[in-house]
Known about the structure:
The complex is a heterodimer of chains A (about 220) and B (about 800). Chain A has seven helices and ten strands. By secondary structure, chain A is α+β, with helices and mostly antiparallel strands. Chain A has a single domain (about 5-190), classed as 3-Layer(aba) Sandwich (NADH Oxidase). In chain A, strands 1-2-6-10-7 form a five-stranded antiparallel sheet, sandwiched between helices. In chain A, strands 3-4-5 form a three-stranded antiparallel sheet. In chain A, β4 (about 60-65) and β5 form a beta hairpin. The radius of gyration of chain A is 18 Å and the shape is globular. Chain B has about 800 residues and is of the alpha/beta class. Chain B folds into four domains: about 15-300, TIM Barrel (Alpha-Beta Barrel), CATH 3.20.20; about 310-330 and about 365-585, Dihydropteroate synthase-like (TIM Barrel, Alpha-Beta Barrel), CATH 3.20.20.20; about 595-675, Methionine synthase domain (Methyltransferase, Methionine Synthase (B12-binding Domains), Chain A, domain 1, Orthogonal Bundle); about 695-810, Cobalamin-binding domain (Rossmann fold, 3-Layer(aba) Sandwich), CATH 3.40.50. Chain B is about 45% helix and about 15% strand. Chain B is built from 30 helices and 25 strands. In chain B, about 55% of the residues are buried. The chains are: A alpha+beta (about 220), B alpha/beta (about 800). At the A-B interface, α4, α5 and α7 of A face β8, α13, α25 and α26 of B.
Amino acid sequence: MIRHFEPSDLPLCMQEVRRYAQLKDDTLTDRLTALLPDALAQVHGRVCYDLFPVQPLGSGQIDLGFSVVSSQSLCHLLRHASRCVVFAATIGLAYDRHIARISGLSRADGWLVHALGTERVESLCDAFEYYLKEEGYHLTRRFSPGYGDVPLELQRDVFRALDCPRQIGLTLTDSLLMSPSKSVTAIIGLTETYEPVTDRCTACPQVSCAFRSQP
Amino acid sequence: MPSCSPQTSFPRPDLLQYMQDHVLILDGAMGTLLQAAGLRSGETPETWNLSHPDVIRSVHAAYYAAGSHVVSTNTFGANSLHFPENTLKEIVEAAVRIAREAAASAPSGRPRYVALDIGPTGKLLKPYGDLAFEDAVAVFAKTIRLGTAAGADLIFIETMNDSYETKAALLAAKENSTLPVFVSNAYGADGKLMTGASPEAMTAMLEGMRADAVGTNCSLGPDALRPVVERYLSSASVPVLLKPNAGLPRVADGKTVYDVGPDAFADSVADMVRKGVRICGGCCGTTPDYIRALDLRLRDLAPVPLSEKETTVISSYTHAVVFGDDPVLIGERINPTGKKRFKQALSDHDIGYVLREGISQQEAGAHVLDVNVGMPGIDEPSLLTEVVTELQSVVDLPLQIDTSNPEAMSRALRLVNGKPLINSVNGTEESMNAIFPLAQKYGGAIICLTLDEHGIPETAEGRVQIARRMLEKAAAYGIARKDLVFDPLAMTVSSSADAAVVTLTALKRIREELHCHVSLGVSNVSFGLPARDGINAAYFALALQSGLSCAIMNPHSYDMMRTYHAFRALSGLDDHCMDYIRYVESHAPVTSAASVPSAPKESAESGSLLQSAIEKGLKDEAVQQAADRLKTHAPLDIISGEIVPALNRVGARFEQKTLFLPQLLMSAEAATSAIDVLKGAMKENVSARSGSCFVLATVKGDIHDIGKNIVRLLLESYGFAVTDLGKDTPPEVILDAVVRLHAPMCGLSALMTTTVPAMEETIALIHREAPWCRVIVGGAVLTQEYADRIGADAYAPDAMACVRIAESIEAHTSGKDLL
């Protein structure tokens, strides 16, 4: 059964906003502060999710219950998981319209609002993980279609399994882009015991990524 | 297969007639029952019309037996995006046939109808998604034609969570069928659709397009939907529909159960029927038991009579704007008449400029935006539809479509996401015959000018008479009185002493005698007079006091806005005068020394001030300094001698990582604003700029454009003539622009691996057909290696790098081997 998570409040981390804006110093505080109230008012965080059994099939294949995937990185991530949570999260279309509106007046402000939106949806995902932990689950890190060797095409199956357009108003274009744009889909393994999450970036082949953590 | 000829066991009167004195009972969930019968998760229920017709028929039969007047065909997802055309035909025809068979064998005692069920496509419409509005109309049209031909009695558009897609479906129904149409939307707990619309906004748009019933289904249980239903009941004149879920789902013993049982469900729905709901049923989680319980409670219940709502309402994709005591302000600035810069923007196809006019009027307090892009030498229908589409993707105000070109009007009305104001019709037969049919089809409140074949009557009586004639003619098209807003025409007081009085008298009489709302283009009154704002504001106050409902005006005019706020404060519309105080405090013209334009400074100092403003990213300061600088220097010298060096210093700091992207963008904005001032001074010589032509686009399939927009800003600040083709741009369109402009360079952006093939295709096309053009690529997934592999001439890891590459191409436009 598809379930919902809609937190009323999400903690805000300005350091993260600066990181997504590629602002590596502490300038522009006034400008960011001025943009916050209107932007935050446009955020409507919604998550839909479901639980599926996980079955490794050997030779790099894994059955996720809603789709069979060839991916070494997913096999590795879920090696101790018997089930997984598949979720889709979005902060809504109003935020995209807000970015467009602010960008129309100032590209610089538009860029900052865009970075704030990225922080908002990541914060929504973090809040969702926290909620799952409160429910008593042990979680692996979250892993999205397109990460590592997980094919982006898995998005189609995720969208089918979660009925995203109806449940949270999230849609997929023919070229597998999500709209609204400030959205995340991901898979989280559920394990019997707690395992510390190791470095998030070393497994990823996107070596030119601006956000890759330094070894 | 049994014969599909209807063997009606009970006479089936005309549906709309039957509804006049009966509450109509719909069915409950289909999916819930099919899952119980073995439908697997991920399997498409519609294919069961072909593989399990008996199961589908028995579900319909169970609902008819439980008391449903109407069952919906199993066609929720039956559309040409999900099925090939032949299969779609089989599925829809089978669906209607199966339902008809169930109706024919239903217990007698009440008429049984079959609704062709139309669900959402699951796609978001452009520009935020990838389904074009007309493509959505075409998708719905196919299913509707098939279902109508197969013998459905009505069309039920349901579970729609986006207003624009709802409009596409209703338009398809109206254009491809004469059957009655019920339209039902899915609301969240916040009382809005996923894309933001309120029940009042949906009612305004759907009633304007002549839906036969409106309402809500799915999402929530009956109690939780009560506030939404009450808002429908107080805004809709047509019957209101309610089809809630059986509460919220949860998992118990591995099965999905809903938390509202049949009796509680039926009690709650019946209560809403007593309040005025006339069509009801159940959605997810409901079964024939729920419908039976509902039928029991509704047996002796007569429907609450319909009440015609006399309110004049227009809407955007989020909210409705109601005409009443509180005056409505219509921003007039999107109009080229008398505006050199605006005309320039239209001929340059600078849609961004037009959007800024819209956004800034909203910020200034406009409630509605007038949209007029008519000027000689442009393709008005195309430009108007483009501007309307772009505006409504960033501004959530209702629009007033302003054109004298019926073709442009028709195409714009089709694409408006909401119920617009139509500007305008007049009392001539020609005008009424052109405009009223459009309003009849697409909906909209119409601005009616009180003039006719004989011109503008000099007397108030003459104008009121024209208004009466227009009311009669509109009624013949089924257009209600509430949808006519009269403009008794503000005339120039300097040429006729009683011009203002006559208009005010006509205004008052139309309000009192015809009970219609009135609009005025106030500023006409002051033509030829000095200090026009003073006359305009005084006239505005008089007109408001005479009952003016809305005004077409400039929301940036301090005098007009202050009058508006003062009127509201004096009329008891502004509690504790808070709005007035807030407005005056934030807008009062500053007269301190600081705002007085500074005297021309010594030139070296002023030059460094301009550079410093750009380096600090201070837009207003840069504009001021550029204007100062113009007094002593030529525009091109200022650009090459001051602006570009300042930008270069900022760019170098960005490359050295001592300054970051947001600051770079702020400097670029300050520079482009300064350049704009300088361009204004280059009267005959606007094109005499230094930079080369640069064609820029996000490739086909890619709907994200933030990176491309940043590149555009930087290129423009460096003086490049950027032709921005936008996002999701087909290769041919990009090639067209490159060839037309003989552009030496072209920038392509792609965000995802899935759209890189479109980039590769575009590069190959340009290299083949326009070998002089160098292609620069960028975007999140690209690397130098990837760029090489797809044949790009250059890879720009960031926006500044793109500028550097463009500069190097510009310096060596003769050779390909330079890169």
